[in-house]
Amino acid sequence: MSKVNSSNMELELYRPNIEDYLPTDSIQEPLGKLKLRDLLDISPTLREAGGAIVDAIERKLSIFFSVYVGRLRVISNLDSEDSFTRCFKSNPPETWNWNVYLFPLWCLGVVVRYGILFPVRALILTSGWIIFLSCYIPVHLLLKGHDKLRKKLERALVELICSFFVASWTGVVKYHGPRPCARPKQVFVANHTSMIDFIILEQTTAFAVIMQKHPGWVGLLQKTILESVGCILFNRSEAKDREIVSRKLREHVEGAENNPLLIFPEGTCVNNNYTVMFKKGAFELGSTVCPIAIKYNKIFVDAFWNSKKQSFTTHLLQLMTSWAVVCDVWYLEPQNMKPGETPIEFAERVREIISARAGIKMVPWDGFLKYSRPSPKHRERKQQAFAESVLRRLEDK
Amino acid sequence: MGNTSSMLTQYDIEEVEEHCNNTFSQQEIVSLYQRFCQLDRNSGGFISADEFLSVPEFAVNPLSQRLFRMVDGLNFKEFVAFLSAFSSRATLQHKVEFIFKVYDFDGNGKVAFSDLLDVLRDLTGQFISEQQRELVLTHVLEEAGYKKDSLLVLSDFMKILGNTGLKMEVEVPVD
């Protein structure tokens, strides 16, 4: 499957460090002289294998649609699919306008959407931008000295322009749960479907965000306006220096003056039916993690932004010519790392909470291993431990 | 049980339960079915070697090769029967039989020196030389009263492993 192979390179960048996720050795070391039964008793190794098959040692994955319903969602054209690539597929909607009664209605719908709704929305958006810029530029330039007031006004203005954006798609967003407040030592995490997630959340709370550097007008926005709410930018191809990004995150979280930080730990846009494995970066900052779950109602529009297929502009235009963007946003209970929990376990626990609330499936993490197997050195470590114990006990005469 | 449908009926569950001698409860069987379907990605009705190797903990296990020769191509009923040795309700006899089967690669009911050597090689890799392995095995065999060319059968295994506590239980996650 050449299609899969060519996307291997990109997925390499998203691949988390697999070794972090494999369990460390915990075979009990019996003492005493080596006997035949010690060599024949392979039960610990078998138990590990059995546990792996049954998925007992791994964290239990919550599957919220029963396996029966899940199996119905099969993508038709690719013959051997795996759950990882399934996360990035958008099902084309089935054609319902194929008969003589529905086709005129559909045509009427197209006329309404492109002829009436779109111009109105474009107008709203343009006037929104005019209002925004005419307030933002003076505030930014004139209030240079009064930082606190300036920041407050800029926050309010960013929230305003986001509201205009949402209005331009006829966004109907239902917020559930307590609104986020700005406190130090907390980060917000959410599942990610499109860049509009950020806009929808920014509408009510001015978050600071960590984003990939984008080209074009989005990049311009990043450097100017988003910078005022506090935006950490990175370049995915330079993501090797995680330490710098991690340090910036930590500094931001600790500053009481900074806007609350919003992170999308999946690291990429996923179609709104699944969550992929969360990267642990947001979970090892030593702060409270507040999960946010976002679920779009697909009846109105499929909000998934496949950045490989569409530019953001095309995506926005598609949204502006749809009927509406309807979604639910749940602000969930803040979570702290439990004693003895690793950041990865913490990340998975939060992912479970978010997936449960949004009613979407978690992808079994072994989907990543379609592209890379764990290195043989893990097996060698086990072999070495056993070999050493055998030799040592042989000496004990 | 149809391979095409992914619905598990009550009849199916009871049939599987009987086949594995009630070592798994009905709820556990349902969980195992979910896991089976999760592993059987192409819905072929059985789990191929490739699909097993996609479970990382299984792939790095030193005995994975031997195990998936045993488990390759099993349908769900046989899959559960295979796993029944790992249930907490499995008898000691059952567990020893399972271990015996892992050693007895060719399935002729007899475990030779070469079979023992093969498993020891899987478990120790390159960290012991082949010569040392043979020495160790010969030494412990003789100490236990066997000779290098003895062929071990199941009852020998029962004798050797019978009074040790074999810890092989795996908990099936039940929703």
Describe the structure.
- The complex is a heterodimer of chains A (397) and B (175).
- Helix content of chain A is 46%, strand content 11%.
- Chain A has 397 residues and is α/β, with parallel strands linked by helices.
- In chain A, helix 10 (216-229) links the parallel strand 3 (208-212) and strand 4.
- The longest helix of chain A is centred in the first third of the chain and has 41 residues, at 102-142.
- Chain A is globular.
- Chain B is an all-alpha fold and 175 residues long.
- Chain B has helices at 10-19, 26-39, 49-53, 56-59, 64-71, 76-83, 92-103, 113-124, 130-143, 154-161.
- The longest helix of chain B has 14 residues, at 26-39.
- At the A-B interface, helix 3, helix 4, helix 5 and helix 14 of A face helix 2, helix 4, helix 5, helix 7 and helix 8 of B.
What are the defining features of this structure?
heterodimer; A: 397 residues; seven-stranded mixed sheet; 14 helices; 46% helix; globular; disordered N terminus; B: 175 residues; mainly alpha; Plipid/glycerol_acylTrfase (chain A); phospholipid metabolism (chain A); transferase (chain A)
> What's the gyration radius of chain B in Å?
18 Å
Count of helical regions of chain A: 14
- Average of per-residue pLDDT values of chain A: 75
Q: In percent, how much strand structure appears in the residues of chain A?
A: 5-15%
The biggest beta sheet of chain A is recorded as: 7 strands, mixed
Shape type of chain A: globular
Q: Please give the count of helices of chain B.
A: 10
Distance between the termini of chain A: 58 Å
- Would you list the SSEs of chain A in sequence order as H and E? HHHHHHHHEEHEHEHEEEHEHEH
* Series of secondary-structure elements of chain B, N-terminal to C-terminal: HHHHHHHHHH
Please report the total strand number of chain A as a whole number. 9
Please give the share of residues in helix of chain B: 40-55%
Structural class by helix and strand composition of chain A: alpha/beta
Q: Oligomeric state of the chains? A: heterodimer
Domain EF-hand (chain B): 27-62, 91-126
Keywords (chain B): Calcium
Protein name (chain B): EF-hand domain-containing protein
GO molecular function, one term (chain B): calcium ion binding
